[in-house]
Amino acid sequence: MIFPQETLVGQTYNSWTVVDFVGRDANSNQLYKCRCSCGFENVIRKSTLIAGESAMCRNCRAKKRLESKLDIVGKKIGSCTVIKRLDNLKDQSYYLIRCDCGNEKTAFGYRLRAGKSTACPHCRIKTHGMSYTSTYKIWTGMLRRCTNKNFKAYKYYGGRGITVCDRWLEFDNFLEDMGIRPDNLQIDRINNDGNYEPGNCRWVTAKVNNSNRNILKNKKGN
User: Fold this and answer.
1) What distances in angstroms separate CA 65 from CA 14, 32, 46, 68, 108, one per listed residue?
2) What are the C-alpha distances in Å from 36 to residues 41, 45, 183, 201, 205?
3) pTM to 2 decimals?
4) What is the pLDDT of residue 110?
5) What is the mean pLDDT of the chain?
6) What integer pLDDT is reported at residue 100 of this predicted model?
7) pLDDT at 90
8) Per residue in 86-127, pLDDT tens?
């Protein structure tokens, strides 16, 4: 290969490293084979490199945009500030957030970016006015059993893999699916090895609930 008098070979422009001179295009623009930091190679005009019009390959640009979108630590979303990113949960980004009232909770990244799961439960109750109802207390108890390792019943629920579906992390959604708790009835999972989610939960009497639990105990005993 015959190099032009002023070659760019060996020089770096942003994420590109110039590997070789490959000739000129129809307009006599110098063309160079360049290697992105990720290893991808492409032919780029000299003027494009010098002007910084191409800083990296298409894949790296897409990755950078995605990382920028996911980087929400420190941002204020709704009534909460994102404190830090936690280990992924269910293959989804997971964050610790702090409500304006000072309470902290966790939330999935996709819900935060959609503007959901922002206010903590104590602040959200101001909108639905049901904080002192038995329906709301059952909902909070359900969450504690599945998420709070310090809760005495956790080992029977979250401790053995029982979870609350994403939809029911919002009380309004739980209320919409289950309705107001009928008098003297309890929430029950039809499949005791299943999660708290639509289709697996119902309102039953304490007798039916206890019977369902005993079936599970007998299974384990066998």
Assistant:
1) 16, 26, 25, 5, 19
2) 6, 15, 66, 53, 65
3) 0.43
4) 79
5) 84
6) 78
7) 77
8) 888 877 788 888 887 788 888 888 788 776 656 665 565 555
Structure confidence at residue 67 (pLDDT): 63
What value does the mean pLDDT take over residues 135-140? 92
Q: What angle do CA 120, 79, 166 make, to 5 degrees?
A: 45
Tokens matching residue 141? 């108890």
Strand partners, 76: 81
> Distances in Å between the alpha carbon of 117 and those of 53, 54, 98, 109, 113?
40, 38, 11, 10, 10
**Do residues 96 and 104 touch, judged by C-beta distance below 8 A?**
yes
User: How many degrees, rounded to 5, is the angle at CA 95 between CA 89 and CA 98?
Assistant: 145
Average pLDDT value for residue range 49-67: 84
Q: In 3D, which of 106, 95, 104, 138 has the Cα closest to residue 122?
A: 104
Maximum CA extent, the chain: 91
Amino acid identity of 122? H
